[in-house]
Design brief:
The chain is an alpha+beta fold. The protein is built from 7 helices and 12 strands. The strands form 4 sheets. The chain has a 5-stranded antiparallel beta sheet, with helices on one face. Strands 8-10-11 form a 3-stranded antiparallel beta sheet, covered by helices on one side. A two-stranded antiparallel sheet has the order 1-2. The longest helix is centred in the middle third of the chain and has 19 residues. This is Aminoglycoside phosphotransferase domain-containing protein.
Amino acid sequence: MRLVMVNRRDNSSAQSAPVSSLKVALPSPVSVEELDTLECLNDGGDKRVSRFVPGILVKFGWHQEAEVHALQFVHGRLSVRTPRVLHHAPFPNTFLEPWDWQKGVWYFFMDECPGVRLDTVIHRMFPAELDHIADQLRILLKEMRSCTSTMPGSVTGGPYDNRFMPHPWQPPHAFPSATEYLAYYREIFLEFCGPEYVDELFGCFPNGPDVLIHLTHGDLLPRNILVDGSTITGVVDWETAGFYPEFWEYCQMHDPGWMIPEWARVLARMFLGPRREREIAAVSRIIRDLHYNNSVFC
């Protein structure tokens, strides 16, 4: 088993936190069974996050390549801390079918961000604390929106590789514009929906050359925001990150399944004006319909 020596970062909230002199040996496992005995922190079914040693986590399972690229891209670009990738399985040099995930980047080690998940404490927060959360997230979104692109796609400049356009619908390349992005979605949905439904669904979104494309987390919800009190100490789970039209992050943050009063207050302070209900409902339907009509999951 090959070992990789890394410096372990002190568990503070800053991206530039000091690195301790302690060396940690990270293995290059060849099977999931080698990691099964670790303390499991989050079991998502096809992906699992476990603690390797205090301060270092390992995420393993279904394709991890997109998240490794995303974490490497955002690290040091934002004022909020994000996990630092320490070691990962080699990037594949050829296309892999979904069932060949263990031949690609099926695991990676990262440092552990401090704090607790916002969804576990948000119901106990006072209004002033919720407003503090909102103000920090507003700054984060401003930083992310300053990182723009003309082409919807992954942070590498290639196509999306996540559940929003899953196999067998993964696009062959990034899209030239938001118009082509929406047109591709339309073609997917015409495989299993009638044209009237498709026109109504995708007619909800702004379209044309003025639609902004910028860096997007894709799942910026309380479960992926870490806090200490009302201070955000980290944002995790970047597997769906990429460059998306502006409406995507907005709608994902307004996921109806997360619309508890406390989170609704945070969003109302972040996004002024009437809630864009048609767009929110449309994105929710897109994700639902993709899941239920995907042969990989059926």
